[in-house]
Amino acid sequence: MKFGVVVFPGSNCDQDAVDALTLMGQPVVKLWHKDHDLQGCDFILLPGGFAHGDYLRTGAIARFSPIMNEVIAHANRGGYLMGICNGFQVLAEARLVPGVLLRNLSQKYTCKNIYLKPQSSSVLVSAGLDKEQPLKIPIAHGDGRYYADADTLKQLNDNDQVIFRYCDETGAITDAANPNGSLENIAGVANERKNVFGMMPHPERAADPLLGNTDGRLILEQLVTSVLA
Amino acid sequence: MKYLAQIDVMTRKEILDPQGKAVKLGLHNLQMDAIDNVRIGKHITLEVDAETEDQARQTVDSACRQLLANLIMEEYTFTLQPA
């Protein structure tokens, strides 16, 4: 399994993603957004940052970066594709996952640790996690308010496509624990086929023991274990 | 022929616009209590080369659908005039 991290102009978590995957012993390369070659990667990751300055809407211009042709074809073939933060916004703009990310209800850019509760038992990124254990993961975004219309939301729930919800440190999914006003505290979703998943929080920023928090590593490690299985 | 398009992109009515809500509070602080339903969107202008106004309309419409607006969360309207 070879991992590829796409670098857009304005990406700033690409190296964090490479470091986290390297720490777990995975082969990983960076892919420049203007290229048309996925270099044989089996798992593509769209990292956090501010691709193309977040102009117009977050992810809206990155969605049309040259490499996205190959990334979308990869996803349509059933290949693994994950978006973190800005990467999630790119996935939403490309309609690779349902819904959109709106400006935070607070109107503020929010950078802090939050807690996540793993939800889906069928999407690889959360399937192997303890559903009762809240995970402390950092968020850093201004546009993270997940929104989808009522029909889409019902489909997400019925089809087990919600991967994480914001909760408090006891694991309770409450309004107070919702950092951005996301519908039903949704922090991440997968597509219907469950090979594409996006989340606003940053597990790759909580993967190195030197940084004092390894809850993110739990997510990435079990993801790597699942895709290698 | 060159046409000037004036495009308005607004968040869909069913979606809460926290910026508009905050501005409404500011207006009420100015005693303008008669003001309600403040919503803030984007205004985009662009020029387009086209043989006919109809062709220009099609190009602008396509630009709005593909990039300028996200129809899950936004709606758009535009006007055209010779540039």
TrEMBL record, chain A:
Pathway: Purine metabolism; IMP biosynthesis via de novo pathway; 5-amino-1-(5-phospho-D-ribosyl)imidazole from N(2)-formyl-N(1)-(5-phospho-D-ribosyl)glycinamide: step 1/2
Reaction catalysed by this enzyme: N(2)-formyl-N(1)-(5-phospho-beta-D-ribosyl)glycinamide + L-glutamine + ATP + H2O = 2-formamido-N(1)-(5-O-phospho-beta-D-ribosyl)acetamidine + L-glutamate + ADP + phosphate + H(+); L-glutamine + H2O = L-glutamate + NH4(+)
GO terms (BP aspect): 'de novo' IMP biosynthetic process
Keyword Ligase carried by entry: yes
Pfam families: GATase_5 (PF13507)
Entry keywords, A to Z: ATP-binding, Cytoplasm, Glutamine amidotransferase, Hydrolase, Ligase, Nucleotide-binding, Purine biosynthesis
Keyword Nucleotide-binding among UniProt keywords: yes
EC number in record: 6.3.5.3, 3.5.1.2
Subcellular location: Cytoplasm
Residues the record marks as active site: C85 (nucleophile), H202, E204
Entry GO MF terms: ATP binding; glutaminase activity; phosphoribosylformylglycinamidine synthase activity
SUPFAM superfamilies hit by this protein: Class I glutamine amidotransferase-like
InterPro entries per record: Class_I_gatase-like, PRibForGlyAmidine_synth_PurQ
GO cellular component: cytoplasm
Taxonomy, superkingdom: Bacteria
Summary of subunit composition and partner proteins: Part of the FGAM synthase complex composed of 1 PurL, 1 PurQ and 2 PurS subunits.
Purpose of the protein: Part of the phosphoribosylformylglycinamidine synthase complex involved in the purines biosynthetic pathway. Catalyzes the ATP-dependent conversion of formylglycinamide ribonucleotide (FGAR) and glutamine to yield formylglycinamidine ribonucleotide (FGAM) and glutamate. The FGAM synthase complex is composed of three subunits. PurQ produces an ammonia molecule by converting glutamine to glutamate. PurL transfers the ammonia molecule to FGAR to form FGAM in an ATP-dependent manner.
PANTHER family (UniProt xref): PHOSPHORIBOSYLFORMYLGLYCINAMIDINE SYNTHASE SUBUNIT PURQ (PTHR47552:SF1)
Name of the protein: Phosphoribosylformylglycinamidine synthase subunit PurQ
Underlying gene: purQ
TrEMBL record, chain B:
Gene Ontology CC annotation, any one: cytoplasm
Domain of life per record: Bacteria
GO process annotations (BP): 'de novo' IMP biosynthetic process
Compartments where located: Cytoplasm
Pathway listed: Purine metabolism; IMP biosynthesis via de novo pathway; 5-amino-1-(5-phospho-D-ribosyl)imidazole from N(2)-formyl-N(1)-(5-phospho-D-ribosyl)glycinamide: step 1/2
E.C. number: 6.3.5.3
GO molecular function terms listed in the Swiss-Prot or TrEMBL record: ATP binding; phosphoribosylformylglycinamidine synthase activity
Reactions it catalyzes: N(2)-formyl-N(1)-(5-phospho-beta-D-ribosyl)glycinamide + L-glutamine + ATP + H2O = 2-formamido-N(1)-(5-O-phospho-beta-D-ribosyl)acetamidine + L-glutamate + ADP + phosphate + H(+)
Keywords, alphabetical: ATP-binding, Cytoplasm, Ligase, Nucleotide-binding, Purine biosynthesis
InterPro entries: PurS, PurS-like_sf
Family designation: Belongs to the PurS family.
Stated role: Part of the phosphoribosylformylglycinamidine synthase complex involved in the purines biosynthetic pathway. Catalyzes the ATP-dependent conversion of formylglycinamide ribonucleotide (FGAR) and glutamine to yield formylglycinamidine ribonucleotide (FGAM) and glutamate. The FGAM synthase complex is composed of three subunits. PurQ produces an ammonia molecule by converting glutamine to glutamate. PurL transfers the ammonia molecule to FGAR to form FGAM in an ATP-dependent manner.
Quaternary data: Part of the FGAM synthase complex composed of 1 PurL, 1 PurQ and 2 PurS subunits.
Protein name, UniProt field: Phosphoribosylformylglycinamidine synthase subunit PurS
The species this protein was found in: Rudanella paleaurantiibacter
